[in-house]
Design a protein that fits this description.
Length: 286
């Protein structure tokens, strides 16, 4: 069971299609998807988006993901991705350090926002944030997980709980944190408010009716999509339009559904000012 928390896989590099010998490496547009989910699942559900962009632009698009958040972040900082889909903290830091420019954001379950939350078992006797004192909390994704760790940590602080008031552990991603709680490997899991709606849990045998959420946070703009600052402006605009218009056609809706989204909406840098404010609050604690 402990492998749920700390399972290790190698770096995963997947081609959406077999690469033609005439396509040079520098001509491939790499889409980096952060490891919010299991790597194999991530590649599978985002392949249709890469295929769609390939067909519409005439350029080859390739999905790339990583085994965990630290490896993913190393790839962002080394410029390994032309387009990148990641969390709010990732975007803000990569915008400052590497000039990545946001072009769009997720919409999931018809919502343009995400909230932090803690998952607990219904039979745990835990009904509020204050009940987490002295408990083991498993945060999904590591210390750069904006919603699962940072937002939920601020929730704990505002409720008066210090870092010494509970035991901190980490799972590879939020779904694994939920599974660990279900298996009673921890008392609570730091995830997002849509965490129990993810089909992956049921596929892993989790009876979500035995779980509940507590401590739901204020809303923050959904997960961003950004591009390298060196990307040609016309090409960037083309990608943006293709992404934000997916929900207008039956094929696009099918592609979005496969990736767990109801739409992809246009986004601007200023949309993430509330996320910047939370990060500033978090830094005061650490």
């Amino acid at each position: 069971m402990n492998k749920i928390l700390y399972s290790i896989t190698g770096f995963v590099l997947f081609n959406c299609f077999s690469v033609s010998p005439v396509v040079a490496e520098e001509d491939i547009v790499k889409i980096g998807i952060f490891p919010r989910r299991n790597a194999a699942v991530t590649v599978k559900i985002f392949k249709p988006i890469a295929k769609y962009l390939t067909q519409r632009t005439g350029r080859k698009f390739e999905i790339v993901t990583a085994k965990n958040f630290p490896v993913f972040w190393e790839n962002v900082m080394s410029g390994g991705y032309d387009i990148v889909h990641y969390n709010q903290l990732h975007y803000i830091e990569s915008n400052i350090k590497k000039g990545y420019q946001v072009i769009a954001q997720n919409e999931e379950f018809t919502s343009r926002n995400l909230r932090g939350a803690f998952v607990v078992r219904k039979d745990s006797g835990i009904n509020s944030i204050h009940d987490l004192k002295g408990k083991k909390i498993i945060f999904g994704g590591g210390k750069k997980a904006f919603i699962a760790y940072m937002t939920n940590t601020i929730t704990l602080r505002r409720a008066g709980l210090k870092s010494t008031d509970y035991l901190t552990r980490f799972a590879k991603n939020p779904p694994n944190a939920s599974i660990a709680v279900y298996l009673k490997q921890g008392d609570a899991g730091g995830i997002g408010d849509i965490g129990l709606k993810i089909p992956f849990l049921k596929k892993k045998g989790v009876n979500v009716s035995e779980l509940k959420l507590i401590g739901v946070s204020d809303p923050f703009p959904h997960l961003p999509w950004a591009v390298k600052k060196t990307m040609d402006e016309n090409f960037r605009n083309t990608i943006q339009q293709l992404l934000i218009n997916l929900g207008k056609k039956p094929l696009g809706k099918k592609i979005l559904k496969e990736a767990g989204m109801t739409n992809i909406n246009i986004a601007f840098d200023k949309d993430y000012d509330s996320s910047r404010a939370l990060i500033d609050d978090f830094k005061k604690e650490y």
